[in-house]
Amino acid sequence: MADAAAAEDAEQRAEEFASLEAIYGGDIDLQHDMGVAELHIPGRAAASPHAVARATCPAGYPSASAPVAELSGPQLPPGLAAEAAAQLEALFVPGEVVLFSWFEWVRDRLEAWLEGERRQREAREALAAVRLAGGGDGGSEGDGSGSGSGGEEEEEQGAEVASLAAAQQRGLRAPAADGDAALMASVAPRIVSGPPHTERRSTFQAHCCRVTEAREVGAVVAVLLQSSKIAGATHPAIMAYRIAVGPGVYAQDCDDDGEAAAGGRLLHLLQLARAENVVVVVSRWFGGVLLGPSRFALINNVARALLVEQGFIAGGGGGGEGGGKKKKGRGR
């Protein structure tokens, strides 16, 4: 009995490590024999110094024992390392894998802190420039601080406008070769769109389609982008797919479509729910209010709701048969 439990633990750890590698790519180091996963945050390619979130999985994980957390790096907010260790213990539920949830919690906290540091630094620089230009009187200081803060908001929203322009250009391009007219006509009747969900002026809408080969994925996206409404979204096609190609073997991939890491999170949702033979796409229309990390939960929530409705995954998070319901698409 103990040997069977140990074997099941080892299998679940291996599956979880494979999912983490698919999501994070070169930003994660995995030592399978030691049960160690190390995520570099915000990433190896980042210009700023990165932190390393390390989780060590004991032999009894995930059935009984929680992983051990470590957090290191040259720029860490005070107390975050201890808070991260406590968070991992709090997230752990015997029998359930937890590393992705913990890594995302750490990343969100670090990115929020780094963003706050950046804003403060830029505000100080703007204030110094105003003092230099205006002689440092109190009125100039107040004006400079307010102007710097407003400029930062405009800069971030300007990035969203640039993303919108890029998305619109992509939507106006001709479909790729794997999205030719015959294939697009074949997949179009199977595409289902969920209801739009609006949160703080941003709107999210999920679309899904049963697929059995990877070339159908491009055709599904091409059909969606024929809609001027979807093509005009800030991020029209955040996407992930998972296709069974043999017993326990899957063809799977994702696309962030300019929303960094969003596609990987969708793919992780498909993997955890053991969904198969499906592509899920989420379109986001930015409304001018920055949502921060909560946007990722909104993207996954609308995707999950549609996948549950269409029978690709069970309502409680279990695996689905991947059949999908026969239902006319909405909102294309």
TrEMBL record:
Residues 131-165 are annotated as: Disordered. It is found in: Cytoplasm. Gene3D superfamilies: Impact, N-terminal domain, Ubiquitin Conjugating Enzyme. Its main location: cytoplasm. The keyword Repressor applies. SUPFAM superfamilies: Ribosomal protein S5 domain 2-like (SSF54211), UBC-like (SSF54495). The keyword Cell cycle does not apply. Residues 133-150 have a biased composition (Gly residues). Keywords: Cytoplasm, Repressor, Stress response, Translation regulation. GO terms for cellular component: cytoplasm. Pfam families: Impact_N, RWD. CDD domains: RWD_IMPACT. Belongs to the IMPACT family. This is RWD domain-containing protein.
